[in-house]
Amino acid sequence: MSRKNNRQLAFESSLEHDFFLTLEFDPSVVSFEEQPFKLRYECDGTNRFYTPDALVHNHNSSTVFEVKYKNELDSDKELRQKLSCITHQIEREGKYKFMIFTDATFDQIYLQNLKFLYKFAFLKNTEKFDERFKSIYENLSGPISLMDFLYAIDTDSSNHGKVIPYLWHFLALNPKTIDLTQKLSMNSPLIKDSLWQK
């Protein structure tokens, strides 16, 4: 399920799933489509058709993405030639940018953090907690660990088990408040930044 597109997404590989997940957490991405259209292009004097894996819409531009494993790109000369022809065709048309996403684009710690947090992205009845988290966060005077932030939310540790899912939900909707390139734990520090998702 995609929050940004408000619908279920189809994907053909775990790598495509990971790619779509990174788009959900990227504040520059407004929306995206899987297999959005067919493109006619020429390669080695032959007319061919290509269906992109994704079309990603940012605020001021849109980009066609091909999603491939790096070892597949490195070992398949014919695939690299095909993608080169596709790149030239898209550049000639001038409507979209063209980029390739591989499993080397983001590290595994980052992806594992996204997978963990996205489990809580659709938590229900979060409004009361979200406002409480936001109020305390915006009044922070300096760095604070997630554990200390949890105690700022509720000083009674016996209630923390009920509160923690809503904390993960808050972070899933406001990923710029935490460094997701580091393994997420209760010792992770909150980053003082404006909340990008209202």
Short recap of the structure:
This protein has 198 residues and is an alpha+beta fold.
Commentary on this structure:
The protein is 40% helix and 18% strand. The mean pLDDT is 93. The protein has a four-stranded mixed beta sheet with strand order 1-4-5-6. It folds into two domains: 14-101, 3-Layer(aba) Sandwich (Trna Endonuclease, Chain: A, domain 1), CATH 3.40.1350; 108-190. It has 198 residues and is of the alpha+beta class. The longest helix is centred in the middle third of the chain and has 17 residues, at 77-93. The radius of gyration is 20 Å and the shape is elongated. The chain has helices at 14-24, 70-75, 77-93, 108-118, 127-138, 146-153, 160-173, and strands at 29-34, 39-43, 46-50, 54-58, 62-67, 97-101, 144-145, 189-190.
Strand order of the largest sheet: 1-4-5-6
Mean pLDDT: 93
Shape: elongated
Radius of gyration, in Å, reads: 20 Å
Strand content: 15-25%
What's the CATH C level of the largest domain? Alpha Beta
Multimeric organization? single chain
Stated plainly, the CATH topology of the largest domain is called Trna Endonuclease, Chain: A, domain 1
How many β-strands, per DSSP?
8
CATH arch. level architecture of the largest domain:
3-Layer(aba) Sandwich
Low-confidence stretches: none
Report the total helices. Answer: 7
